[in-house]
Design brief:
- It contains six helices and six strands, in the order H-H-H-E-E-E-H-E-E-H-E-H.
- It is of the alpha+beta class.
- Helix 2 crosses helix 3 and helix 4 runs antiparallel to helix 5.
- The longest helix has 14 residues.
- It starts with a helix and ends in an 8-residue tail after the last helix.
């Protein structure tokens, strides 16, 4: 993973966590030294990210990204293309969730912002380790997508709609 991808992933991880994330956890997750994480945090702060250190780890106060939720419908075979469409246009797939009639909202954090992360996700599904949440609801699912601007989110929405991945309104 390139350093700019790692930094974007660090911001997305901090945004998704409800608690502070230690430098050691970040180091382990991204396979780099603590010193690299400290440098990444410093660079992220210089770029205007509102990250601060606590005795329990790093916390981000506010998101530098815009967010939009998309209701989607597609096949398992189209999952990789759906995710690539989003990340190739500069978006991050923050999460996936479905609305189950008995259980309510079932949600999982993804924080997918690169093709290598897509490959890891697709491999975990294809290997049989797990199935996608969308199978619970006949293919319908939601993604919270983050991007640096509303214009990028508009481009992502247009691309998803042009591939007929946006679920029809009922």
């Amino acid at each position: 993973m390139k350093s700019d991808e790692r930094r974007k992933s660090i911001v997305n991880l901090l945004l998704s966590e409800k608690k502070a994330v230690s430098g050691s956890e970040l180091s382990e997750k991204f396979g780099v030294s603590r010193q690299i994480i400290v440098r990444d945090i410093s660079i992220l702060k210089e770029q205007g990210n509102d990250i601060f250190a606590t005795n329990a780890g790093y916390v981000i106060r506010s998101s530098p990204f815009k967010e939009r939720v998309f209701k989607l419908l597609h096949t398992t075979e189209q999952t990789e293309d759906e995710l690539q469409t989003i990340v190739d246009l500069g978006g991050t797939v923050a999460d996936v969730y479905v609305w189950h009639k008995a259980y309510g909202k079932m949600q999982a954090r993804l924080n997918i912002s690169s093709r290598s992360q897509i490959d890891q996700f697709i491999e975990s599904v294809r290997s049989g380790k797990s199935v996608e949440l969308m199978h619970i609801t006949g293919g319908y699912h939601y993604h919270t997508v983050r991007a640096s601007s509303d214009e990028l989110l508009d481009k992502i929405e247009f691309a998803l709609a042009s591939k007929n991945y946006i679920a029809p309104e009922i």
